[in-house]
């Protein structure tokens, strides 16, 4: 049995939690949702400051989202990856934190928790309506920790209540901002996601365990470091370089980069998933990117996720790696 833990971005993937669109309900539009597309922004602004039930307002797109999640799960299972599903929320959980921001989602489990090595960490996402996601994820993951004496379980201090749009001191730390490079951790810092207080907390926690944390400032209203950069294999990354405010962080200074266009970045080309160091799942819309991957010896695995991406994420967001080998 493979021990619990995720040790890289592109080692062999063995076990995941996958999200779902059950009861997906988005909050009224606010400053923490600036990454949404224009149509979705308009729909949220038209609700009269009420949450929006996606299956009712966008039935066709919701159904396609569900279908694409199942297709992603099928790709994993066909490649020997164990897939864990999340239980439904209880009624009490659905209403949790609604005074700060109403809404319900289990779509992107990679954000409110993260696995670094053998450490399962519950962290603080800015969007308050999504912080409740830790409850069903916790129930899926803790049985795996109980069976592994080397596994660790930690939780950040709660973010200080401030505003529904995720302003204030936090600390905020989001899974979509963390990339593992051996014993180095790259952590995106931006206006919509992780803040410096979150990076500082992570450093205090993991550095005694032998990790080094490198803040990576993100320029513009972009949600998450994974929205602009991914690591494909040792020495090869894919990135939209203008969004890296300080350029490549020190652990990647000598790496080759497949450069993305602004349009490819917006369409989440870097938010795919590597099954291993030679295969990368991404939406088939990215024909140029797939050609570039092929030229660099990476097999592109076309995996439709255009409906899933409509809500602001892609394959990596719907996937929480629990067991991934070192690079």
Average of pLDDT: 94
Number of discrete helical segments: 9
Give the terminus-to-terminus CA distance. Answer: 19 Å
- How is the largest sheet built, in terms of strand order? 1-19-2-5
**Estimated helix fraction:** 10-25%
Radius of gyration: 18 Å
Which series of helices and strands comes N to C?
A: EEEHEHHEHEEEHEEEHEEEEHEEHEHE
**Looking at the structure, what is the overall shape?**
globular
Q: How many E strands?
A: 19
**Main sheet overview:** 4 strands, mixed
Look at the helices and sheets and give the structural class: alpha/beta
Strand content: 25-35%
Low-confidence stretches: none
Task: Report what the structure shows.
This protein is of the alpha/beta class and 327 residues long. Helix content is 24%, strand content 25%. It contains nine helices and 19 strands. The strands form six sheets. It has a four-stranded mixed β-sheet, sandwiched between helices. The chain has a three-stranded antiparallel β-sheet with strand order 4-3-6. It is globular, with a radius of gyration of 18 Å. The model has no long low-confidence stretch (mean pLDDT 94).
